Amino acid sequence: MAVFSIAAMQFSSEHPHGAASPIFGVTIPSGYRQWELVAPSHEAGSLDELRGILGNSPAVTAYRDGKLPFPDGAILVKLAWKHVPSAQYDAALGQRQAFVPGRATTVQVMVKDSKKYAATGGWGFGRFIDGKPVDEAQHLTCFPCHEANAKLHDFVFTQFAP
Asked: Can you give the pTM of this predicted structure?
């Protein structure tokens, strides 16, 4: 099992014991760390996270071709870390303007299956902390947020960064 560690949390390419998200049954896909980068992002405010969004081949092909809705089988994985100033680069530059990933916070997964997840726009969701799925209450918030804020882009927030 490939593992990428940051501080006390690990981003793993396989989900321990096949634990799946409540409601949707989504797991962390094997080999996702080798997928292509779709885009980086920064969530300001209380979360203050740096994020890297990865996509499997069907997802990246849809992005490149500009085809929506995403095809069944498309999977997106978002890795998130705390956004922290870089002491090394700030010292070299003499000011605070460089930032780096801090401790890992979550792995979030979206799986497109228009039949299985018809009630949620064709998407199943998984949110994992320390490799374990968060509770059902947190998963109940996924689709309403995507529906309210990303409906015109097949419920996906991330735009492709070519």
From this structure: 0.83
The enclosing domain of 143 has a CATH number of: 3.50.70.20
Q: Which two tokens stand for residue 51?
A: 């994020």
- By residue range, what is the domain housing residue 62? 3-153
Other beta carbons within 10 angstroms of residue 34's beta carbon come to 10
Q: Which amino acid is at 92?
A: A
Strands 99-112 and 36-43: unpaired
Beta strand spans in 2-153 (E): 3-6, 9-12, 36-43, 49-55, 75-85, 99-112, 123-129, 132-133
Q: What is the DSSP letter of 147?
A: H
The one-letter amino acid at 89:
Y
Q: Tell me what pLDDT residue 94 has.
A: 59
86 exposure class (CB count in 10 Å sphere: 0-12, 13-18, 19+)? middle
Q: 161 lies in a domain?
A: no
61-119: per-residue pLDDT in tens? 999 999 999 999 999 999 999 988 887 765 555 566 778 888 999 999 999 999 999 99
User: Which has the higher per-residue pLDDT, 4 or 37?
Assistant: 37
